[in-house]
């Protein structure tokens, strides 16, 4: 059943693997870009869970194994940005961390400012969001 979804996940640089089976409960781990994708909950419930329960009616529940996310701190955000800055500087651009806020539920909000020719490129912003969500979890919000 999971193989049906492989072409879609692979095309988005992601994957899904069975973490474990406990009785009639299957625990799945979304990997790669799938684990930090804003649509991962929909993929899990409307795609994977629905198809697994349809094909294997004995399954009572499908649960997503969530990666352990790091705490959102200015220092940790700067680590991610330091990996991206060399590329931006080659194109005459730069990126500055403006603010980091964390609410009571440990959800982070990161405000960034991008300058230069690459500032308008959606692909650059998507790569930055991907890297931040991979490290901090899918709930982190990135503001421009």
Q: Within the largest sheet, what's the order of strands?
A: 1-2-3
The tally of beta strands, per DSSP, is 6
Could you give the distance between the termini? Answer: 39 Å
Poorly predicted parts: none
Q: What integer is the average pLDDT?
A: 81
State the order of secondary-structure elements, H for helix, E for strand.
Answer: HEEHEHEEHE
Structural class: alpha/beta
Strand portion, in percent? 25-35%
**Share of helical residues:** 40-55%
Instruction: Please state the CA-atom Rg, rounded to the nearest Å.
Output: 18 Å
Biggest sheet character:
3 strands, mixed
- Summed up, the helix count is 4
Notes on the structure:
This protein is α/β, with parallel strands linked by helices and 144 residues long. The chain contains 4 helices and 6 strands, in the order H-E-E-H-E-H-E-E-H-E. The strands form 2 sheets. Strands 1-2-3 form a 3-stranded mixed beta sheet, with helices on one face. Strands 4-5-6 form a 3-stranded mixed beta sheet, with helices on one face. Helix 2 links the parallel strand 2 (25-32) and strand 3 (61-64). The longest helix has 17 residues, at 74-90. The protein is elongated, with a radius of gyration of 18 Å. The termini are far apart. The model has no long low-confidence stretch (mean pLDDT 81).
């Amino acid at each position: 059943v999971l193989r049906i979804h492989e072409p879609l996940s692979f095309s988005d640089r992601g994957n899904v693997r069975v973490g474990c089976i406990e009785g009639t409960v299957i625990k799945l781990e979304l990997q790669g870009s799938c684990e930090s994708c804003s649509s991962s909950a929909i993929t899990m419930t409307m795609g994977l869970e629905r198809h697994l329960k349809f094909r294997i009616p004995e399954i009572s529940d499908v649960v997503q194994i969530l990666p352990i996310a790091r705490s959102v701190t200015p220092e940790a955000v700067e680590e991610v940005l330091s990996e991206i800055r060399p590329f931006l500087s080659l194109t005459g651009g730069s990126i500055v961390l403006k603010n980091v806020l964390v609410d009571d539920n440990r959800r982070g909000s990161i405000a960034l400012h991008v300058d230069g020719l690459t500032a308008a490129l959606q692909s650059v912003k998507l790569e930055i969001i991907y890297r931040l969500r991979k490290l901090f979890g899918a709930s982190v919000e990135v503001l421009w």
